[in-house]
Write a structure and sequence with these properties.
- One of its GO terms (molecular function) is ATP binding.
- It comes from Hypnocyclicus thermotrophus.
- One of its GO terms (biological process) is mismatch repair.
- This is DNA mismatch repair protein MutL.
- This protein has 313 residues and is of the alpha+beta class.
- The protein folds into two domains: 3-194, Histidine kinase-like ATPase, C-terminal domain (Heat Shock Protein 90); 204-311, Ribosomal Protein S5, domain 2, CATH 3.30.230.10.
- It is built from ten helices and 13 strands.
- The strands form two sheets. The protein has an eight-stranded mixed β-sheet with strand order 5-4-3-6-2-1-7-8.
- A hairpin with a 4-residue loop joins strand 1 and strand 2 (45-50).
- Helix 2 (16-29) runs parallel beside helix 6 and helix 9 (244-254) runs parallel beside helix 10 (293-311).
- It is elongated.
- The relative contact order is 0.13.
- The structure holds adenosine-5'-diphosphate and magnesium ion.
- Adenosine-5'-diphosphate (ADP) binds next to helix 2 and helix 4.
């Protein structure tokens, strides 16, 4: 499987949530310590402000060109720990299906610069006064692609998907401050002051109190069992993924402790050599496969079981 095939497989902007995921990853790649997002119009209008490295005027113009990436690239790099981006197609894709403006300033520039893009074409640009960082505003997502617009779900569904994306990103990046507003109402806010504060801010102090550490992250006590699997958060090399194998390993470690229909709360940070990941599965699909599922399953299950059954009365 060639890198270009893997790349081509992905639809980057499937919906507002997947677009926001890409935008957040760009802000994180730019070393931002603060990321603020405001979403309106069912997710079709999005404003994201970061305080990261920013772009020079030249880089700003380049940023919406397809396959313009300042990051990359080898097959292994897809799951590396250095950066989220590697395809250079997120901004180009978003730009082509929206009305967008990007304002940015980097440390070397005295002023910032802003471009206005309509369906992929730059229609205006100007100098702006601005702090270091990047501010991207997307309006009328899918205005020129009625078929995709038709596939947007209800406002509630789109907003819930967006909340989930921001929550999972905030949880993995607890030293970055996140703020999400939906229709100008703040629904999620973290201070960027470490793991413990982040858990309290995203969930509650009670959840924090009932989390215990083990080799591959944190697991919840019997006091915070959930009624869905949605509270098993899995990060492979900092990327949020759905992994059936890891989910099963966690649940199996609890085994007889679990009542029917009850699932553990767990946050798994699992780092693995990218060579051990089957890259035929597209990263943007969030689903991951390992070259050796059994090893991963046994390792996580036995590590969790050890701690879980030792420390609990
Ligand atoms: P990729 O992330 O794969 O490189 P993108 O299309 O997401 O591709 O972004 C294109 C380029 O635009 C990035 O490589 C980066 O140089 C620049 N860029 C995008 N967003 C930001 C941001 N928030 N801050 C600084 N640079 C950015
Ligand atoms: Mg990117």
């Amino acid at each position: 499987e060639s890198i270009s095939n893997i790349i081509a497989a992905g639809e980057v902007v499937e919906n507002p949530a997947s677009m926001i995921k890409e935008l957040i990853e760009n802000s994180l790649d730019a070393n931002s310590s603060s990321i603020k997002i405001n979403v309106t119009n069912k997710g079709r209008n999005v404003k994201i402000i970061d305080n990261g490295n920013g772009m020079s005027k030249t880089d700003l113009f380049l940023s919406i060109e397809r396959h313009a990436t300042s990051k990359i690239i080898s097959k292994e790099d897809i799951y590396n720990l250095k950066s989220y981006g590697f395809r250079g197609e997120a901004l180009a894709s978003i730009a082509s299906v929206s009305k967008m403006s990007i304002a940015s300033k980097n440390i070397d520039s005295i002023t910032g610069h802003q471009i206005y893009v309509n369906a992929g074409k730059i229609i205006k640009d100007k100098e702006v006064v601005k702090n270091q960082g990047t501010e991207i505003e997307i309006k009328e997502l899918f205005f020129n692609t009625p078929a995709r617009l038709k596939f947007l779900r209800t406002k509630n569904t789109e907003y819930n998907k967006i909340k989930h994306v921001v929550l999972t990103q905030a949880l993995a990046n607890y030293n970055v401050s996140f703020q999400l507003s939906l229709d100008n109402k703040i629904v999620l806010k973290t201070s960027g002051k470490g793991f413990e504060n982040c858990i309290t801010e995203l969930f509650s102090f009670n959840i924090l109190k009932n989390l215990k550490k083990f080799k591959y992250g944190y697991y919840g006590t019997m006091d915070i069992l959930r009624s869905t699997k949605d509270y098993i958060f899995t990060y492979i090399n900092k990327r949020y993924v759905k992994s059936k194998i890891i989910e099963t390993a966690i649940i199996d470690a609890y085994y007889t402790k679990l009542m029917k229909g009850k699932y553990p709360f767990a946050i798994i940070y699992f780092d693995i050599n990218p060579k051990e990941i089957d890259v035929n599965v597209h990263p943007s699909k969030k689903i991951i496969k390992f070259s050796n599922d059994n090893t991963v399953y046994n390792d996580i299950k036995s590590e969790l079981k050890k701690t879980l059954w030792e420390n609990e009365s």
